[in-house]
């Protein structure tokens, strides 16, 4: 039996390699957001809607088609609000203006500022869902136990692809009180 002594380990080389891995991971993390946006733009999967009010510009109403618009709400990170649509779905003709209402109640014992962030599914339809007026454009400050009905006025563009007959508008409600307080 021969006894071999292990080769000396080059710690400096190992540390350099590990630092390169850490820097690469950090850079990749920053690159994910723009890469995601590019991917979503190419595939049409992003579901982002307009974040400013649009003017009603439809050139008439397509009464030959009916589109079902579903409404879903979610609360993010345990925001203590009751938040829901007053109707679960509505049928519209492309080009037709509609108004739906959402209910919110701050169930906390202190004031909270909420912000609703919308998305549309399928993502390719997001560009055809036009919000004329939306509570999501503004912060929603509610006092303790205060409740409110909030309006969404919208239309579905007549150019919506013919194979899309159902849209789902989803709102996620965030507590932005700390963000507002730090401004």
Descriptive notes:
With 183 residues, the chain is an alpha+beta fold. It has two helices and nine strands, in the order αβββββββββα. The chain has helices at residues 11-43, 177-181, and strands at residues 67-75, 81-85, 89-92, 98-106, 112-121, 129-134, 140-142, 147-156, 166-175. Strands 3-1-9-5-7 form a five-stranded mixed sheet. The longest helix has 33 residues, at 11-43. The radius of gyration is 24 Å and the shape is extended. The termini are far apart. The mean pLDDT is 86.
Can you give keywords for this protein?
183 residues, alpha+beta, 4-stranded antiparallel sheet, 2 helices, 9 strands, 36% strand, extended
Describe the secondary-structure layout.
Elements: H1 11-43, E1 67-75, E2 81-85, E3 89-92, E4 98-106, E5 112-121, E6 129-134, E7 140-142, E8 147-156, E9 166-175, H2 177-181
Parallel strand pairs: 1-9
Antiparallel strand pairs: 1-3, 2-4, 4-8, 5-7, 5-9, 6-8
């Amino acid at each position: 039996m021969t006894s071999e002594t292990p080769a000396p380990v080059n710690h400096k080389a190992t540390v350099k390699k590990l630092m390169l891995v850490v820097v690469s991971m950090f850079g990749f993390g920053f690159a994910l957001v723009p890469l995601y946006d590019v991917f979503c733009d190419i595939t049409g999967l992003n579901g982002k809607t307009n974040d400013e009010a649009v003017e009603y510009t439809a050139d008439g109403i397509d009464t030959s088609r009916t589109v079902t618009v579903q409404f879903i709400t979610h609360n993010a990170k345990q925001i203590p609000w009751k938040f829901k649509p007053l109707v679960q779905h509505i049928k519209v003709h492309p080009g037709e203006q509609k108004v739906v209402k959402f209910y919110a109640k701050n169930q906390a014992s202190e004031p909270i500022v909420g912000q609703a962030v919308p998305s549309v599914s399928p993502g390719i339809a997001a560009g055809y869902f036009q919000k004329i007026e939306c509570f999501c454009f503004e912060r929603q400050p509610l006092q303790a136990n205060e409740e409110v009905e909030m309006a969404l006025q919208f239309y579905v563009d007549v150019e919506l692809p013919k194979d899309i007959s159902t849209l789902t508008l989803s709102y996620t409600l965030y507590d932005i009180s700390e963000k507002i307080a730090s401004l």
